[in-house]
Structures are given as C-alpha cells and as structure tokens.
Design goal:
Layout (H helix, E strand, L loop, with lengths): L13 E3 L18 E2 L1 H10 L4 H8 E4 L8 E4 L12 E2 L2 E2 L7 H5 L2 E5 L2 E4 L9 E7 L1 H7 L2 H11 L2 H4 L6 H15 L2 H9 L3 H4 L4 H9 L1 H13 L3 H12 L2
Antiparallel strand pairs: 1-9, 2-4, 3-4, 5-6, 7-8
Length: 244
C-alpha cells in the first residue's frame, strides 16, 4: 500500500476519495498552474458554448519558456479570489464532466516512466489515504483520463518533428501555426475553409467534410498537418487571408 508522498508504480495500490465533506474541498483548485492540452480546450470551449478564441482570451494565458519553445496554455486563476480556478463554485467544479486532464489525474502525478506520486501533501489533501483502493490504471479509467491520454499521443509528436529554423520571422510563423492548429480550432477551421487551403494541400473531399463538422477530427488533422508542416504553403495561405 502506498503511503503519503511515496513514489509508486502503476500496479501499486493507493487510497483516495474526494467529496464536499472534506475540510479541504475545493482548496486544491487555488494558486496552481493548470496547463491545458488541446483536447482540454476543445472540451471546455464546447461545454461553455464559446468559440476557441473567446475561451482562450477569457480564461487562459499563454506560457513560453523561451523564444525557441512552443507556447502552452494555462488557466488564469482569479486574482481577486485567492487565485481560485474560474470554474470552481462552492459546490465544486462547474465544468466537471469536461474538466482538464490534470484535474482528472489528481491527486496522481506522473513522475517518470511507470513512476507516480501524489500532487499534494496529505496535510493539504485529506482524501489521500482515505476511501477505496485504486491502481493508477483503475484511477485513469474511472476518471475518464484515458480518452484524454489517447488524444494527447499525437500532440506530443509535434515538438519532436516540427523544428524551428533560427530565422525570427519564420519561427514566429511556426509558433502561430502551432498555436492555431492545436488550441484555436475555430480559427484553424476558418484558415482552412476561407482560403485556398483545401486545394493547395490537396485535402480529399471526404476528409474536408469531416473536419468541417467535427472538432475532434479537425484537431487530429491539425496535429498531422503540423508534423508535416509545409512552411511556404502555410505562409501563402496566411498572406492570402490577410490580404482579403
């Protein structure tokens, strides 16, 4: 049995429960950095019935480690409310069915390959060590995080295959394409369907119909497109749209 803050393997058992009877209820959703995956953004913006651009502008900020790093998206905490997550209410998470992957995984934290730990100390999270027993696999499936992990697999390939050039203007464009096709799906759809994109990139009609109607298919297409990004063609499409 795993004890507080010990590292453990996927098959090891740990105890955890969370409910509104715990003194710490909602406290874990304050003053933390919640990074969003593209699938997180997709689910949240659709649940809130917002465009991706509106969601990103209202609830998130962009985080970059350096000029040669891809941008990431973080939820903006409410500064006036003890840095509380904007989706937290007194009754709990208002977007719970579509909560981000990191929220689904908590209190489990990935430490390495087949190595896990807890995000929080037991003095802060009173649910650790209480309730039913879980393995990591059982917890992931119970929380619906397995779907998120599957969606994230192709996204993780992008930084390995899409490289910066060292030229400021071109690298800025690469970042813009990465952000748009990963996070700003509604803008990406406009980029595709309000230009000569379909013809220039020879997108089959059946695939075009799928990505026009389905956000998940559009996201998958975007990942594939980024891995094989043709910088010249993408810049031509950008200039075409800007010139209208």
């Amino acid at each position: 049995m795993v004890t507080n803050n010990n590292y453990f393997r996927a098959g090891d058992k740990f105890k955890f429960t969370c409910h509104d009877g715990l003194q710490c209820f909602n406290s874990c959703c304050r003053d933390i950095s919640i990074f969003l995956t593209p699938y997180d953004v997709l689910r949240l913006k659709n649940r809130l019935k917002m465009s991706s651009r509106e969601f990103l502008n209202r609830y998130t900020r962009v985080w970059e480690t350096s000029s040669m790093a891809f941008p990431m998206v973080i939820i903006n905490m409410r500064a006036e409310e003890d840095k509380r997550c904007p989706f937290i209410t007194e009754r709990g998470c208002s977007v719970y069915p579509d909560r981000p992957w990191s929220c689904r995984m908590a209190p489990v934290d990935i430490k390495g390959k087949d190595l896990f730990g807890f995000c929080f100390d037991k003095t802060c999270c009173h649910g650790i060590g209480e309730g039913r027993e879980w393995t990591v696999e059982e917890w992931v499936k119970n929380q619906g995080a397995d779907i998120y992990q599957k969606m994230d697999e192709k996204f993780k390939e992008i930084p390995l295959k899409l490289e910066f050039t060292g030229f400021t203007t071109i690298d800025k464009h690469i970042k813009e394409m990465f952000f748009m096709a990963s996070y700003d799906l509604d803008r990406f759809r406009e980029y595709i369907f309000k230009s000569s994109f379909l013809k220039k990139f020879a997108v089959p009609t059946e695939l075009a119909e799928k990505i026009k109607a389905d956000d998940v298919e559009l996201m998958k297409f975007g990942f594939h497109w980024l891995v094989n990004l043709d910088i010249r063609k993408s810049m031509e499409i950008r200039d075409e749209i800007a010139g209208r």
